[in-house]
Amino acid sequence: MSLFDYLDELESMAQSAADHDAAPEEADEIGIQRWQKLFNCSYSEAAKKLQEHRAGICRNPVSDAHWELVRADKEAQGYDKEAYEYSCQLLVSQQSRRDSDHRIAATNAVSTSTYLFKLEGPLHSISAIRAAGCLSDNDDGVSKLIACVDDSGLPANFCIIEATTKHNILVWLSSEKSPFQPTFVRYSKADKALSSASHCPTLGVDTTLPQHRLTSSAALPSPGQDEYPVWYFFYGTLADPAVLRGLFWMGDDAEPPIKYRPAKIVGGTLTTWGGKYRALVDATTEDSTVEGSAFLVLTKDQEDALRCYETDKYEVVRCKMEMLDSDGTTVRGLTFRFKG
């Protein structure tokens, strides 16, 4: 902010204080009716808003020069200078609330994040990580040892940690004045929470409606949360066998080979996000179909690889798919629905 900006701000504050020292004007009938119409409120609400605005020392008055620039347009819309000044304050307040909501959402997203942490240096074991992360043996802040290879092609071990554990590790390293640089990789995978008491979540189906609820005689929803093997429907890059071989660490001649079946699902439609990625979402009509490929996922490890590939922008949902290489056999399987 320049010196002139500071001087303008001080002048504005001085004017507000001077206005506040004088007794605020009573809300007049014409002003109340104007505010009722402009700000969509009752007579009593309009009178209260107008009186509070006139009495407010913290309001930012609109300069005469500013008002002259917009006066013709605003008066045609029913504003006077006072009502326009209040409308500007409303816009600033609304933007401030939106910014605050965005900051809270971003903070929540970070606090619920999980990370892959490479076991090396002074933090070469789960027990060392628990100590640095201030975790007890029963704490869930670190879990699942994963053996893989690093960027150099050498064997490496990773574990999954929560955001609070990451923070505690960084604090511990700082307190120890350690030169060690830890490796954190954001661990983001598609949610999977299949209900055993309803068909939720199912592509294109509102499972809260009566016609979609389970009856006492109905079979358990299928597929189940931990049911394998299970059919998955793919419509994009996962329908490329080379992609699956890479995800599953399979060679070209691995057994069993990657095998797809042409299929279509109902209740979904394709859209785009980020300007280039195809994404499956609920359709507005139940008879909407999408053609793609069906693949039989054999194990939870394979499914976890797929979920990590899709990231937390997606969620696993149930779907009904029709195999197109047979006599129209229908199976119940799963797919990835975009959630943003």
Automatic annotation (TrEMBL):
InterPro entries documented for this protein: AIG2-like, AIG2-like_dom, GGCT-like, GGCT-like_sf
Record flagged with keyword Repeat: no
GO molecular function, one term: transferase activity
Record keywords, A-Z: Transferase
Segments passing through the bilayer: none
Gene3D superfamilies referenced in this protein's UniProt entry, alphabetically: Gamma-glutamyl cyclotransferase-like
Pfam families with a match to the protein in the record: GGACT
UniProt key word Transferase: yes
Boundaries of every Gamma-glutamylcyclotransferase AIG2-like domain copy: 232-336
Family according to the record: Belongs to the gamma-glutamylcyclotransferase family.
Annotated protein name in UniProt: Putative gamma-glutamylcyclotransferase
